[in-house]
Structure formats: structure tokens, C-alpha cells
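Private note to self, pasted from the team thread so I don't lose it. C-alpha cells:
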């Protein structure tokens, strides 16, 4: 089936007639095509958005909120259809698409539909100067949203929903590897009554379509989630145009386990934080550090549990680990196993591609645990973004803190301990935008989300996202 661009509430083909293949990771087959949109398509999308802006930016908050919540309801009503499409396009287990991806996409619209009605601006009485200051929060105009393949609709809508709520019109591009659910979203937006041109979705490669959005002189801001190298490239292109940028980039997150933790809870959650979505979540705790006195027991129990995880076709109920997103990505992840071996690390389990009967060309891989002897080795420093974690012991809090922080990334960290003083010390010292204590990926959409160092610039979530998608203008009136 051919995916089309969604411009001015219509599905349209790319002007150039340039198409890409869409692969199904579960069996390696091409099951459709998508546009590789050019500058001209992006220009059409921009024009539609520009035309829609005066009306949409003046739509009452009540009305905007009502439409966004309606989109959320329609997504919920189409849960099965969207989850099946997401699982097929991405390779993730259907159970995950049903329980996490699509519900969260619906929540994004509901949350920002509500949040915009609570978003207040400031006023300051300048006492003794007979003046009052107040700050307007005006939408930016036409904004660009670019998202990755790992949580396709979840992250696509995480950007679009606040952008629309704040009164902007949008030109958005999902990953070319997982375009399906973004394509399906257009029809839901029409049904919900989103006026034409307010949301425009263009498909294509990063270097053609994505770059055309970034380089468009009148697209005022770019909200980007993806790799650190791409983020740096976008920042370089956008800087001379003084575009507002929100960059949510890669991670290499530590999972730090102290002996005094709740062991069973930790073990269960660590399995999830290591291998959910085939380890393809920017927040996965891919570097596991365990207090020395617990290390032997943890290593045995963890490896035993990992070996029990079922790798299988994403549509099967029993599947814990589905297919990796693409052949190229599978090869990249496998190349890190070779690097690990060369650097004298020990593969405790996994490490190989899996051929599944009936789906021989699918991109499956065993969940892999590698014991490392040096925290500075490549597999402990570089983002692998697959079902691969490293484990190593530590002796002291100071030592583990140093190792946890000694990477270029700073997205999230997880800490397992029941010692309050240690919790306070460590949470303050960890270099990360998000720290979880005795849990993982527990999300409250009101909280700021984002990273430090090479994990990005800016925060999304809650009012932070609405602040990003608006420009403050202070007005001072002397009376
Ligand atoms: P990617 O950087 O290759 O692509 C992300 C998006 O950017 C895609 O839509 C792609 O087409 C587009 N793109 C690529 N080159 C571009 C260019 N030159 N100009 C404009 N757009 C361009 O990333 P990916 O492989 O899709 O996703 C995996 C990465 O995303 C990992 O590094 C992961 O950690 C990161 N990620 C981060 C977060 C977060 O919240 N921090 C969340 C999910 C994923």
C-alpha cells in the first residue's frame, strides 16, 4: 500500500514522483511505498500551514482543546488498528504497541488539550513606577516537527500536540523507516475537525525532506528527536537562521544497583529497562553497574532471566522481543558484538542473530548481556540502541558516580537503593535530565523531559513544551 503526504487535509503524492520502499522488519518484505518528498512538497506543506495560521492561532482555547481531545478519543477508539500498524511497521511486539505506544499517543493529545487551558502568562506590577508589565505568549507561526522510528506515533504526537495546542501550524515528518501510523493520523485529524492546513505531514528521507524543513527560511522552530549526530547537523543548519530548537537526542544511560535495594523489584524492572522495545528506547539503562557484594548473585539471576525472554514474531502474544527495526540497524547492533569481543569483554548470553522459521528474512537478535572489565570500552561509551546491555561491578558510591557520568551523553539514569541520604547525594550528582529511583520509565506528562550534554538541548513535557512553542512578548504600560 502506498503512503501519501497529508497536505491541506488531502492525501497527495510527491510532486517529484520519487518513492521509497517500506519494509516489514518481521519478515524483511517490502509491503508498500512512501514519498521521498522534495523541497517542493515541503513548500506546499508550508504554504498550507501559513494560510491556516491566522485562523488557528485565533481559535479559542476551548475550541482547540476540544479538537485535540477529540483526536485523542478517536485514536483510543482505533487502538487495535493503530497498534497493528505500528507493530508491523516497527517490529515491536503488538502487546507493547497496544499497551504503550498508541495509548500514549492518545494521552499526548488529551494532555496538551487540557494543558493549554491552564497555561498562564505572567504580569508584574512595577510598584512606584506607575506601570504594569504583562507577558503575552504568542504562537510562533509555522513550526517543524521531526521524529525517529523507535516510538513512532508516541514521539510524533509528543511534538505535534503541544505545537497545535499553543496555536501553531505544523509541518511534520515521521521517520522514513516507520511512516505508517503518522500517515493514518491525517484521517483522524480530519474526522476530529482539525481545520485544513493546521497539520501537514510530509514523508521522506532525513537528508531530503527533513533537511528541507530545517532549511526552510520561514519555519520558525524545529522540534527534533533523533540521533546526536543528526541533532548536531540540524543545529548547524538552523543557527544562521536563528531558529528555535528543541533537540532530544541519544543516551547511554546508567542503571546503578546497590545491595540495599528491593531485589525482586529491581530484577524485574531491570529486565524491562534493558530490553523493552528490543532495547530501542533512548531511556533504556544499557550500562548496568552493580555493587560488588551483590554482583555474583545478580549476574546469575539476570542472565537466567534474559535467557528466558522469548524472541518472536511481533504479532504473537507470547513475544517479549520482536524484530529490530531494519536490516541496517541489526547489522549495526551486531557489529558492536564484534567490537565487544575484540575489546576482551565476555558475552554472558546472546550475541547472535536469530532466524525464525517462517520469517527467515526478519531482523531478529538474541537479547545480549556483556560483562565488561573497563567502563571506558566502546560498548560502554557508544549508543548501541539494541537489545544489548553491559554489566560490571563497583566498590564505592564515588567510583560508580564517576563511571556513570563519564560518557558524552546525559539523558537518564536509574538508581536502586533504599538509603535516603545516598539517594539525595546521587540524584543531585548524576549528570542526566531524568533520574529514576527504584523505578524506570514512570512518566508523568507534566514533568520536564530532556537531556544534558550530547543528549540534547531544551525540555519537552508539560508547560515546558508550551513555552517552547510560544514566544514571550513583554508589554509595559505606564499609567
Ligand atoms: P535519526 O537522527 O537518524 O533520525 C531521526 C529523524 O531525523 C528521522 O525522521 C530522520 O529522517 C530525520 N533526519 C535525519 N537526517 C536529517 C537531517 N539531515 N535533517 C533533518 N532531519 C533529518 O535517528 P533515528 O535513527 O531515527 O532514531 C534513533 C535515535 O533517536 C537514537 O539515537 C535515540 O537515542 C534517539 N532518540 C532520542 C529520544 C529522546 O527523547 N532523547 C527519544 C527517542 C529516540
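Design output:
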Amino acid at each position: 500500500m502506498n503512503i501519501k503526504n497529508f497536505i491541506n487535509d488531502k492525501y497527495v503524492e510527491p510532486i517529484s514522483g520519487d518513492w521509497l520502499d517500506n519494509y516489514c522488519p518481521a519478515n524483511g518484505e517490502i509491503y508498500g511505498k512512501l514519498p521521498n518528498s522534495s523541497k517542493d512538497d515541503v513548500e506546499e506543506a508550508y504554504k498550507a500551514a501559513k494560510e491556516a495560521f491566522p485562523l488557528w492561532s485565533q481559535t479559542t482555547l476551548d475550541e482547540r482543546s476540544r479538537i485535540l481531545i477529540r483526536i485523542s478519543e478517536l485514536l483510543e477508539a482505533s487502538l487495535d488498528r493503530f497498534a497493528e500498524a505500528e507493530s508491523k511497521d516497527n517490529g515491536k511486539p503488538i502487546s507493547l504497541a497496544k499497551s504503550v505506544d498508541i495509548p500514549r499517543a492518545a494521552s499526548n493529545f488529551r494532555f496538551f488539550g487540557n494543558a493549554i487551558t491552564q497555561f498562564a502568562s505572567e504580569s508584574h506590577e512595577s510598584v512606584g513606577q506607575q506601570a504594569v508589565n504583562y507577558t503575552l505568549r504568542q504562537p510562533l507561526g509555522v513550526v517543524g516537527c521531526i521524529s525517529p522510528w523507535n516510538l513512532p506515533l508516541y514521539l510524533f504526537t509528543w511534538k505535534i500536540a503541544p505545537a497545535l495546542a499553543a496555536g501553531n501550524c505544523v509541518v511534520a515528518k515521521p521517520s522514513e523507516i516507520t511512516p505508517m501510523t503518522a500517515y493514518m493520523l491525517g484521517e483522524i485529524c480530519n474526522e476530529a475537525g482539525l481545520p485544513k492546513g493546521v497539520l501537514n505531514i510530509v514523508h521522506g528521507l532525513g537528508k531530503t525532506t527533513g533537511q528541507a524543513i530545517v532549511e526552510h527560511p520561514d519555519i520558525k522552530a524545529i522540534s527534533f528527536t533523533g540521533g546526536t549526530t543528526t541533532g548536531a547537523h540540524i543545529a548547524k543548519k538552523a543557527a544562521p537562521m536563528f531558529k528555535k530548537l528543541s533537540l532530544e537526542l541519544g543516551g547511554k544511560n546508567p542503571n546503578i544497583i546497590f545491595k540495599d535495594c528491593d531485589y525482586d523489584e529491581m530484577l524485574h524492572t531491570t529486565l524491562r529497562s534493558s530490553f523493552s522495545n528490543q532495547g530501542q528506547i533512548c531511556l533504556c539503562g544499557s550500562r548496568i553497574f552493580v555493587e560488588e557484594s551483590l554482583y555474583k548473585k545478580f549476574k546469575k539471576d539476570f542472565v537466567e532471566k534474559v535467557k528466558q525472554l522469548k524472541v518472536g514474531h511481533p504479532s504473537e502474544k507470547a513475544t517479549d522481543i520482536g524484530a529490530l527495526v531494519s536490516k541496517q540497524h541489526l547489522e549495526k547492533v551486531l557489529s558492536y558484538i564484534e567490537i565487544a569481543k575484540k575489546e576482551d569483554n565476555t558475552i554472558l548470553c546472546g550475541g547472535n542473530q536469530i532466524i525464525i522459521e517462517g520469517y527467515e528474512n526478519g531482523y531478529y537478535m538474541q537479547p545480549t548481556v556483556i560483562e565488561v572489565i573497563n567502563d571506558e570500552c566502546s560498548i560502554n561509551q557508544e549508543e548501541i540502541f539494541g537489545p544489548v546491555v553491559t554489566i560490571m561491578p563497583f566498590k564505592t558510591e564515588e567510583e560508580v558516580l564517576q563511571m556513570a557520568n563519564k560518557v558524552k551523553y546525559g539523558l537518564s539514569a536509574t538508581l536502586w537503593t533504599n538509603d535516603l541520604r545516598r539517594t539525595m547525594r546521587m540524584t543531585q550528582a548524576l549528570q542526566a535530565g531524568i533520574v529514576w529511583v527504584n523505578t524506570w520509565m514512570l512518566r508523568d506528562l507534566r514533568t520536564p523531559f530532556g537531556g544534558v550534554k550530547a543528549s540534547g538541548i531544551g525540555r519537552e513535557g508539560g508547560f515546558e513544551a508550551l513555552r517552547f512553542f510560544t514566544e514571550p512578548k513583554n508589554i509595559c504600560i505606564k499609567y
